[in-house]
Design goal:
38% of the residues lie in helices and 28% in strands. The protein is an alpha+beta fold and 152 residues long. The strands form two sheets. It has a four-stranded mixed beta sheet with strand order 3-4-6-5, with helices on one face. Strand 5 and strand 6 (144-151) form a beta hairpin. The radius of gyration is 29 Å and the shape is rod-shaped. 12% of the residues are buried.
Length: 152
């Protein structure tokens, strides 16, 4: 048994503990049931729930693990390719996977080999910044090429 100030009151009967809590205008809260006898605390139940929710919010899921997308175009300039490589590096260092999307339109669809060369150049520049591994190989889709990479 623990009182509202945090002092241990020792082992007591459940009815005595409830009467003590009521006399102080507070609630009797069972903190843990894993030990024998279970540990109980005298406190305001609403306040206790609020602090528990705050603790759960602090223990959030780890950041990262999402799928981020980098879009390349058929006529992308070398400088833009470097900028996108730096952005992909930032995503990878945060722990995310990166989907590289090369969109093709109109006559560009007929020049698939040129588009794959652009994607390979992008991967080389990205690999020089951060070591990467391929999650999904370069795949031809109706509107272009896509692939997924992650940090090694």
């Amino acid at each position: 048994m623990i009182d509202e100030t945090g002092q241990q009151l020792g082992i007591m009967n459940i009815f005595e503990a409830i009467d003590l809590a009521k006399s102080r205008g507070l609630d009797l809260i069972q903190v843990t049931e894993k030990v024998d006898p279970p540990i109980c605390k005298i406190a305001n139940y609403g306040k206790y729930l609020y602090t528990q929710q705050k603790k759960e919010k602090k223990i959030k899921k780890p950041v990262g693990g999402e799928l981020k997308e980098i879009r390349l175009t058929f006529k992308i300039s070398p400088h833009d390719m470097e900028t996108r490589a730096k952005q992909a590096e930032k995503f990878l260092t945060e722990g995310n996977k990166v989907k590289i999307n090369m969109a093709l339109r109109g006559r560009e669809k007929a020049m698939g080999n040129f588009a794959t060369e652009k994607v390979k150049k992008f991967l080389e520049s990205l690999n020089s910044l951060i070591p990467i591994k391929t999650e999904r190989e370069l795949k031809r889709e109706p509107r272009g090429f896509t692939m997924i990479v992650s940090k090694q």
